[in-house]
């Protein structure tokens, strides 16, 4: 038996394999259940008691050596494989691809930062909403066109359930559970039944603002929006408010900023007006305060809502809105430095 073990020790010590198959054959020959070493193990009980210690130690030595040799040979094959892959000279020198923040997230975070510094906290609400929070509580008349199938995605089996068309629904969600002072911004995704083109999509993003307290005036609204515009687009930025209409604000206005491409001179981007529109706003209609459980004789408020895509277009001059949702990494990588 000892002689047989010695013989195998020599064999195993000298074994080589040219490829993985040969190596596997060696493993089967020596280390598998039916291999040579296991056969010796089975014979071990026939070894006379006085030789058991010496034979046992040799047998273990053999088993360990076989395992070591096979592992060592296996490693050389694995390294060879990697070696081949490393020779691909067309591969980038950068070892890992770093992800970038989405441009809409960058701009949304910037908007949130600016309003946080002005004392606003963040509120969120569901994207699948009911008619009350999106329309009725926001003072939309029964026959208002915004409720029309052409604008709103309804859930077929439940005409009362819909995809919110604006983040104004979150105003209602906040007011129904809290009393003034209320000062929130509500970022979120909204949906409208529009044909998709370079300038319209069936979903986009808004940031809504709401401030309700005693003695809130239109001047407060104008001041906070001026502050926002100058932090977002630069200290030279001018704003102007044009009268407008929303069911939930009275008076209502749309805000333009001075065109930062031509500096107000007039160019194709601002259609030679020197101004570009960025948001809707106004004083919260007393009927909205009342519908949401707030006493309109004590409190007044202002609200505003802006499109994140619109602001991003102005900041980064993205011509085609569809780029934002196509996930083309060549487009997204351009925003690496803005992260
Ligand atoms: N909800 C309006 C829209 O989607 C924007 C808005 C919000 C206007 C708040 C006034 C006040 O167009």
From TrEMBL:
It comes from the Bacteria. This is Phenylalanine--tRNA ligase alpha subunit. GO terms for molecular function: ATP binding; magnesium ion binding; phenylalanine-tRNA ligase activity; tRNA binding. Its cofactor is Mg(2+). Binds 2 magnesium ions per tetramer. InterPro entries: aa-tRNA-synth_II, aa-tRNA-synth_II/BPL/LPL, Phe-tRNA-synth_IIc_asu, Phe-tRNA_ligase_II_N, Phe_tRNA_ligase_alpha1_bac, Phenylalanyl-tRNA_Synthase, tRNA-bd_arm. Tetramer of two alpha and two beta subunits. PANTHER family: PHENYLALANINE--TRNA LIGASE, MITOCHONDRIAL, PHENYLALANYL-TRNA SYNTHETASE. Keywords: Aminoacyl-tRNA synthetase, ATP-binding, Cytoplasm, Ligase, Magnesium, Metal-binding, Nucleotide-binding, Protein biosynthesis. PROSITE patterns: AA_TRNA_LIGASE_II. It comes from Phocaeicola barnesiae. GO terms for cellular component: cytoplasm. One of its GO terms (biological process) is phenylalanyl-tRNA aminoacylation. It is found in: Cytoplasm. Mg(2+) binds at residue 250. It is an enzyme of class 6 (ligase). Belongs to the class-II aminoacyl-tRNA synthetase family. Phe-tRNA synthetase alpha subunit type 1 subfamily. Residues 107-314 form the Aminoacyl-transfer RNA synthetases class-II family profile domain. Pfam families: Phe_tRNA-synt_N, tRNA-synt_2d. It catalyses: tRNA(Phe) + L-phenylalanine + ATP = L-phenylalanyl-tRNA(Phe) + AMP + diphosphate + H(+). SUPFAM superfamilies: Class II aaRS and biotin synthetases (SSF55681), tRNA-binding arm (SSF46589). Gene3D superfamilies: Bira Bifunctional Protein, Domain 2. Its EC number is 6.1.1.20.
């Amino acid at each position: 038996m000892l002689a047989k073990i010695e013989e195998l020790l020599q064999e195993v010590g000298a074994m080589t394999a040219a490829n993985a198959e040969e190596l596997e054959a060696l493993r089967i020959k020596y280390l598998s259940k039916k291999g040579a070493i296991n056969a010796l193990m089975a014979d071990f009980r026939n070894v006379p008691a006085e030789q058991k210690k010496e034979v046992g130690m040799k047998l273990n030595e053999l088993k360990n050596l076989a395992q070591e040799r096979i592992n060592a040979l296996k490693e050389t094959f694995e390294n060879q494989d990697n070696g081949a892959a490393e020779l691909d000279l067309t591969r980038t020198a950068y070892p890992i691809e770093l992800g970038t923040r989405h441009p809409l997230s960058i701009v949304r975070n910037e908007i949130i930062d600016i309003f946080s510094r002005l004392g606003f906290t963040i509120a969120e609400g569901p994207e699948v909403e009911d008619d009350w929070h999106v329309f009725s509580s926001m003072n939309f008349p029964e026959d208002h066109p915004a409720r029309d199938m052409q604008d709103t995605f309804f859930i077929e089996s439940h005409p009362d359930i819909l995809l919110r068309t604006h983040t104004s629904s979150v105003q209602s969600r906040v007011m129904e559970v809290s009393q003034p002072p209320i000062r929130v911004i509500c970022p979120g995704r909204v949906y409208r039944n529009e044909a998709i083109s370079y300038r319209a999509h069936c979903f986009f993003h808004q940031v809504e603002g709401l401030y309700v307290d005693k003695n809130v005036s239109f001047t407060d609204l104008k001041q906070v929006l001026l502050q926002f515009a100058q932090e977002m687009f630069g200290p030279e930025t001018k704003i102007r408010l044009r009268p407008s209409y929303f069911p939930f604000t009275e008076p209502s206005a749309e805000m333009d900023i001075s065109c930062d491409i031509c500096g107000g001179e007039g160019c194709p981007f601002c259609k030679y007006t020197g101004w570009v529109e960025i948001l809707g706003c106004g004083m919260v209609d007393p009927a909205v305060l009342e519908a949401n459980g707030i006493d309109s004789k004590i409190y007044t408020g202002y609200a505003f809502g802006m499109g994140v895509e619109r602001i991003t277009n102005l900041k980064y001059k993205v011509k085609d809105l569809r780029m934002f949702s196509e996930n083309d990494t060549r487009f997204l990588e351009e925003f690496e430095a803005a992260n």
